[in-house]
Design a protein that fits this description.
heterodimer, A: 275 residues, mainly alpha, MetI-like fold, 2 domains, 0% strand, B: 365 residues, alpha+beta, Rossmann fold, OB fold (Dihydrolipoamide Acetyltransferase, E2P), six-stranded mixed sheet, 9 helices
């Protein structure tokens, strides 16, 4: 058996998987997107993405995902930097503590948040027992952002930590030696070298946040229809697969564009670090 | 030019309860090429890092040009370092790497461009401005690291085993390059290596270190020809270290036979260590007048430029012999050593003194 044939045989299950669960469904999405109930060709479903109601859902999802991503960067960067500098065996353990929640079911994690922030939740219970006024977080944009940040923060920490760990101490010493103070070492060496990791993190936080269904549904109390929720409704509630596919199609194109842009910033030899 | 550029005064440094440097003092003259030489863990890199500002000594002071810089951070010191590896900025091209220090000092673009050109010419990499660091070989990267350091016109260049990662041929080439650079720039080099050949080739002063102490400081010739203790003798090149007895001035007894030597002042009938380089052991006819010791050749290895041979004398001692003429194993031979090739050293007074005592010039004069 020659090597080529062997490789092809080994690849077969994956090829079947990809065709069956990625390519064919995508073809269906495209087919439904460009047809109507009578199976005639139409661009109406795709264009209706720009219908003000849908556009508003998209813009809101975009806004919340963007805010969450920025907060994730702000939270993750110092953590990743501290772990990099500590350089002990413990630090990799602490990194795993941070990503530990990822091993739990996502819906459960959101439920956990709900018990914390709901009107008679843990937080308000503590506040009122201290004689403070209770706060209204649940069913607000803040709740959704909170959920997104909590859910996706590990995906920002890990690639950032990886890219910072790749920076050798000698490189930083070299910068100091050439006259850079600690701030300049950060802005001229550490930060630029961490961009690939940060871009990986952005891709892995922003895109899931943009398309989330569960977080906005549960923590937003159904008051906020993000683009993911709209698509879900088209498929499950109004059973308009054509419209749902049309919206999905535009969203997929948009995600491709985002990934195309971010790929320019990643190292050529660095793949997105998914664990 | 005899100014002291660097003055280390009573430096001590401990890592995790390990005393790496113990009360080390060292003066380095302006415009010299000084090599810190020693096995790993001898404290040479620690010394360099203390001079560079990456480590602060627990005790002692560092003077640069007469000023105390002990607590000055590296970016404020008028010196630059060439690191062993990894120290180039991978996200910048060659020109940006070289310009790094100058940009921080806010030099004009014309000045920077001119400096880049000058530095690349100096390290024989003209036209490499736009290359990626990844696209360079190890030797080229090291040249860029040197160029990046020297454009800042430091008074002192620290080199931390810069050739350690290169293969033998390239290393030898770079040694000559460094000597040339040193002469063209007219600045002081402090070079750290564990490679004795590198040290002998390039430096005008060698500081041999072991276990945090300076064992000997001197010119390459002094270090090689007149090692002050057994550590220096064995670390620098091959050597025969034999027990002997100083009968009187200029006469020493080895294996019960008297040799003439050129050392005096050790007293009479005093036990001493004697260093004889393998190339200084002369193999003569056993019945000739010159033959002082007698023995038999046991091993021979052809090394290219010479034969490395082993000779066992009648009292059972092994002698390492380097010679261009072959003496077959089994041959009965006589051994003779010229007086000036016999290097007498005081025996260490305690077991570990040989390793840790900073032997001072008392033995010499």
């Amino acid at each position: 058996m020659n090597g080529k044939l062997r490789n092809r045989l080994i690849a077969t299950p994956y090829t079947i998987w990809m065709i069956g669960f990625i390519v064919i469904p995508l073809i269906f999405v495209v087919y439904y997107a460009f047809t109507n109930d009578s199976n005639a060709f139409t661009v109406e479903n795709v264009i209706s993405f720009f219908n003000p109601i849908h556009l508003k859902s998209f813009i809101q999802a975009f806004k919340l995902a963007l805010i969450s991503t920025i907060i994730c960067i702000i939270l993750a960067y110092p953590i990743a930097l501290i772990f990099r500098n500590s350089k002990t065996k413990k630090s990799s353990f602490v990194v795993y503590v941070f990503i530990l929640p990822m091993w739990m079911n996502g819906l459960l994690r959101i439920y956990a948040w709900l018990t914390l922030i709901e009107k008679r939740g843990v937080i308000n219970l503590i506040l009122t027992s201290l004689g403070l006024p209770s706060i209204n977080i649940v069913n607000t944009e803040i709740a959704i952002i909170l959920g997104m940040v909590y859910d996706f923060l590990p995906f920002m920490i890990l690639p950032l930590y990886n890219s910072l760990m790749k920076i050798k101490d000698e490189t930083l010493n070299g910068a100091r030696d050439l006259g850079a103070n600690e701030l300049q070492v950060f802005t001229k060496v550490i930060f630029p070298l961490s961009i690939p990791g940060m871009v990986s993190g952005i891709t892995m936080v922003f895109i899931p946040a943009l398309t989330t269904v569960a977080i906005s549904y549960m923590l937003g109390g159904g008051l906020f229809l993000l683009i993911g929720n709209v698509i879900e409704q088209e498929f499950l509630t109004t059973a308009n697969w054509h419209l749902g596919s049309g919206l999905s199609f535009v969203l997929i194109i948009f995600i491709f564009i985002v990934m195309g842009i971010t790929n320019n910033f990643t190292d050529k030899d660095e793949e997105v670090n998914i664990i | 030019m005899e100014n002291k550029l660097i003055d280390l005064v009573n430096i001590s440094k401990t890592f995790d309860h390990d005393l790496v440097l113990d009360d080390l003092s060292l003066s380095i003259k302006e415009n010299s090429f000084v090599t810190l030489l020693g096995p790993s863990g001898c404290g040479k890199t620690t010394t360099l890092r203390i001079i560079g500002g990456f480590l602060t000594p627990d005790k002692g002071q560092v003077f640069f040009d007469g000023k105390d810089i002990t607590n000055l951070p590296p970016e404020k010191r008028q010196l630059n370092t060439v690191f062993q590896k990894y120290a180039l900025f991978p996200h910048m091209n060659v020109a940006e790497n070289i310009a790094f220090g100058l940009k921080i000092k806010k030099k004009s673009k014309d000045y920077i461009d001119e400096k880049i050109k000058y530095a690349l010419k100096l390290v024989n990499l003209e036209g490499y401005e736009k290359r990626d660091i990844d696209a360079l070989s190890g030797g080229q990267q090291q040249r860029i690291a040197i160029a990046r350091a020297i454009v800042n016109e430091p008074k002192l260049l620290l080199l931390d085993e810069p050739l350690g990662a290169l293969d033998l041929k390239l290393r030898q080439e770079m040694q000559y390059e460094l000597i040339r650079l040193k002469n063209e720039l007219g600045i002081t080099f402090i070079y750290v290596t564990h490679d004795q050949e590198e040290a002998l080739t390039m430096s005008d002063t060698i500081v041999v270190m072991n276990k945090g102490y300076i064992q000997q400081m001197g010119t390459p010739e002094q270090i090689y020809n007149e090692p002050e203790n057994a550590f220096v003798a064995t670390f620098i090149g091959d050597s025969n270290i034999v027990d002997g007895k100083m009968i009187e001035d200029y006469v020493v007894e080895i294996s019960g036979k008297k040799f003439r030597c050129i050392d005096a002042g050790f007293g009479t009938n005093k036990a001493v260590d004697i260093v004889i380089r393998p190339e200084d052991v002369e193999i003569v006819q056993p019945n000739s007048e010159k033959a002082v010791l007698h023995g038999r050749m046991t091993h021979v290895i052809f090394k290219g430029e010479m034969y490395e041979m082993l000779c066992v004398t009648d009292d059972g001692k092994e002698w390492l012999v380097h010679s261009t003429s072959l003496h077959e194993p089994g041959k009965e031979v006589g051994i003779y050593v010229e007086p000036q090739n016999i290097q007498i050293m005081n025996k260490p007074t305690s077991e570990d003194e040989a390793a840790i005592d900073p032997i001072i010039d008392e033995a010499e004069d």
